[in-house]
Amino acid sequence: MNWKALFGSSPLPSPAYIKSYEKSLVRKIAKSKPLSELEFLVVDTETTGLDTKKDQVLSYGAVQVINNRIRVSTSREFYLKPKIRNREAIKVHGLVQERPFVSRELLIRSFLEDAAQKILVGHHLGFDLAMLERAGRSLGLRKIKNPGLDTYDLAVRLDRGRYYDPRTIPSREYSLDRLCERYGISLDDRHTAAGDAFLTAQLLIKLLKVAAAKGIRSYGELMV
Amino acid sequence: MANVIVNRIIDFLKNYPPFSFLSEELLGQVAREVDLLYFETDELLFQKGEPAKSYFFVVKEGAIKLTEQVAEKEETVEFCDEGDVFGVLALLGKRPYILNARANEPSLVIAVPVGIFETILKENSQVSLYFASGFAAGQVVVRSSLSQTQKVRALFGTRRNENGLMLFSGQRTIRYSDPVIHCPLGATVAEAVAEMARAKVGSILVVDGNQHPRGIITDKDLRNRLIAPGLPYDTPVDRIMSHPVITAKTDLEFSQVYLTMIKHRLHHLVFTEDGSPDSALQGIISDHDILLSQGNSPAVLIKALQESDDVHELAKLRNQAEEMLRYYLENELAIDFIAGILTEINDTIIRKAIEMAKKRLEPRFPELQELEFSFLVLGSEGRGEQLLRTDLDNALVYQDVSENRREQTENFMQLLARDVMEVLFSCGFHSCPAEMMATNPRWCQPLSQWKRYFSQWIREPDPQSLMMASIFFDFRSAGGKQALADALTQHVYDEIDQGNVFLNFLAKNALLNPPPLGFFRNFMIEKSGKHAEKFDIKLRAMMPLADAARVLVLSHRVVGINNTFKRYEKLAELEPNQATLFRDAGKAYEIFMRIRALEGLASESSGRFIQPNSLGKLQRQLLKNAFFPIDEIQKILRVRFQLDYFGS
């Protein structure tokens, strides 16, 4: 008998989808893989706040970009029922009408299944991943270990080159709104998770073309 | 449930054909399956000869140019901007691409998988027609597709008035006859009939001493109640009249009048001062008048024109014909039918005007009543395809007379021309700025002089002559002696047979206006909106086709077919191996006529100048497709009349 498991001093066994996600991480993407053949999962979350320790995910949106194409058929949009109704967040995100809510498990499972073998992309990706890790923790998710590409960083890098002093960057110039404006992407459905994921995906396919023009041709060169 | 990304795609696609024809559910299915691609300026989407991909494209943002390699140079064939569909060979026949597609500017493009659309193509007739008619960009306009194109128009066309009856829409005025032909109670039938005959009417009211209507006698009553039973003509009207009469007040709305008549199965409705039979008679309306005021019965209109002796009445009827035209165009009736009706109406007015003029001039020229003449209509009216009341082009030809009667005859013909034109002007036609009218003494001449004119134009085909040819060669007798016009036609052919070089000049002249294939391209490049360029549909699209048809028909020695579209029909018959092209040219011409007439009605102008950005996407494509036969036809002229070797 596994006493440790019984009394909760060691984590519960992870469900199969988490195991298979963790297994998928073993295979690395070849550094030489050309840019046009890469597979991305663009994600965005809307949350009750900015504190990754206390706040919760309200909604999740994602869409895949494969071979430079945004695949609308892979688009996802999920809403979680918030435990504490945070009025402020609801005001910002406009989540006023009732949504068909899904369970946290379904959301995390869908995310992990989609994420297998993908480069994760987001604008300020770290925040979204931290929120998703928090949402998945009680389900047995430990760490999201996919390679990640932050469109904020990529946009800055394409302007400033690889080596820049982050303190000199006027970060407001690189907000999702400003970048969309600059790259001619109309700001539809802003502040919904799926809407922002879609904007980020459009930004990604445009940035990838800029990157290619600047001589970034492979996965290895993109991720340095 | 569709998420916001799918909804974003749906919101975009639903604005553009063929997606606009899909049900919400189907569109949702399609939108869920698409991909979005981004291309930088000059990036290639696909290349000519490349096997078709498994999806076709819609421009979401930016512009894609479809290009062709012409002698080392990449030439743009077509521009696709927001909402344009291209690369559809993937869907249709899966043949390799026939053009290159290159981004003209940074562009976001939607790729629609062929798989899902194949089912739709089979099941949705509007969508299949859309593709079958070559509406998508870069689709080779299949020649035989223009007739499809017309069907599409009918399918997509917006109809103002679905049931097509103008009966109760906007019809307010009632035209009733006043004064009313009437006779007193106690009068004999003979007296009543004499009155009817004098006034040329089919009914007479019987009134009492207070002028209150007591009964009515119609032609039918005479037949059934007098002649059939064999009563004498001195029978009092009281015995055979129908009574009581149904009366109404004159302030009734048209629709009420009409309904009252239908309800009582009346042929006549009598108006009195207070609407009751016990007040004084004011007027009468017949079911014939009702039909007339409906305006959309050409037979009734033409009959009314024939019966009228009053210029104002003619003008009023001609205005009604315009309403009828609008109705026909909006309901997509066949153009040859519409043109036929309008031509008949115009010809009737001309004949009526001649009749009136002759009657007026009779006392002054009693000895010229037997003089033979023919009123020739020229240009588009000569071709029987004038839908709007644009400029008048006409002429008078009369029989040659002996020298001693020459001056008097000239005098008579010019006065007649003047009178006829007066009537036409009153009926809303415009005067020709170049004075190509019968009132111009130069164009009011005896047959021998006309023969000299034509001989000169044919023998000395300088630019002036060719300009005259393009107007005068489509002459047609609209009134008077047909034989004079026929003699002139015979003379033209005799002359052409003697010197064939004339047709080469005429053919060369027909190439003066190249097809406006690049027009929409230029329009699209300058989509900034400040570009107020208008498109001259007459000069750039209709004249090239009409000119080509004329020279081809002349080269075949065809007599008596003046309509451009009928000429192409005839040419298709005569040259079976070019039949599809000729039929398409005819169809294209009909499309131009329709667009021009609608534009003219909408802007109360000649409709000649079309503002491209006022056209919908479908109409623009329709117009664009219709340009293609012009180019092909001009190629034929170039080869057939060896114009590349033909000096000017």
Report on this structure.
- The complex is a heterodimer of chains A (224) and B (648).
- Chain A contains nine helices and five strands, in the order ααβββααβαβαααα.
- By secondary structure, chain A is α/β, with parallel strands linked by helices.
- In chain A, a hairpin with a 2-residue loop joins strand 2 and strand 3 (69-79).
- In chain A, helix 2 (16-24) runs parallel beside helix 4 (104-115) and helix 6 runs parallel beside helix 8 (193-213).
- The model of chain A has no long low-confidence stretch (mean pLDDT 87).
- In chain B, strand 9, helix 6 (189-199) and strand 10 form a beta-alpha-beta unit.
- Chain B has 24 helices and 20 strands.
- Mean pLDDT of chain B is 83; it is low at 140-172 and 522-531.
- With 648 residues, chain B is α+β, with helices and mostly antiparallel strands.
- Chain B has four domains: 4-140, Jelly Rolls (Sandwich); 182-294, CBS-domain; 339-499, Beta Polymerase, domain 2, CATH 3.30.460.10; 502-645, Four Helix Bundle (Hemerythrin (Met), subunit A) (Up-down Bundle).
- The interface between A and B is medium-sized, with 26 and 21 residues.
Offer a quick outline of the entry:
The complex is a heterodimer of chains A (224) and B (648). Chain A has 9 helices and 5 strands.
The CATH level-2 architecture of chain A is identified as 2-Layer Sandwich
Q: What is the CA-atom radius of gyration of chain B, in angstroms?
A: 31 Å
How many helix segments of chain B? 24
Q: Can you say what the CATH homologous superfamily of chain A is?
A: Ribonuclease H-like superfamily/Ribonuclease H
Overall, the morphology of chain A is globular
The tally of beta strands of chain A, per DSSP, is: 5
List the secondary-structure elements of chain A in sequence, H or E. Answer: HHEEEHHEHEHHHH
Please state the overall shape of chain B, judged from the principal axes of the Cα atoms: flat
Assembly type of the chains comes to heterodimer
Mean pLDDT of chain A: 87
- Greatest chain-chain interface? A-B, 26 and 21 residues
